[in-house]
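Try this one yourself first.
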């Protein structure tokens, strides 16, 4: 039982829902906001309407609690859903925050 408890303490979160329901929800929310702000500042993305007949690629938040106590959040695209030769040139990402 102690081994399981020890393994759980260092476990990274599996989802955004888990992050906002955790005791560290404010820190995780701040980490997500920091990442969104950085994406805007670096002109990494732009918000557009989805063109007719196009599908968006889903996204996922990845959370890491670093050894130094820093909360890190990264928004990643699920690029494995793309089809070679059809939708590799542009990535239209879906980001859903609850």
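Now uncover the answer:
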């Amino acid at each position: 039982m102690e081994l399981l408890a020890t393994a759980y303490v260092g476990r990274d979160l599996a989802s955004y829902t888990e992050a906002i329901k955790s005791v560290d929800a404010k820190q995780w929310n701040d980490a997500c906001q920091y990442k969104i702000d950085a994406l805007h500042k670096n002109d990494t993305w732009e918000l557009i309407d989805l063109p007719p007949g196009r599908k968006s690629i889903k996204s996922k938040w990845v959370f890491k609690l670093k050894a130094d106590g820093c909360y890190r959040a990264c928004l990643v695209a699920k690029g494995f859903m793309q089809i070679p030769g059809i939708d590799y040139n542009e990535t239209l990402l879906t980001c859903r925050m609850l």
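Discussion: The longest strand covers residues 57-65. Residues 1-8, 92-98 have pLDDT under 50 and may be disordered.
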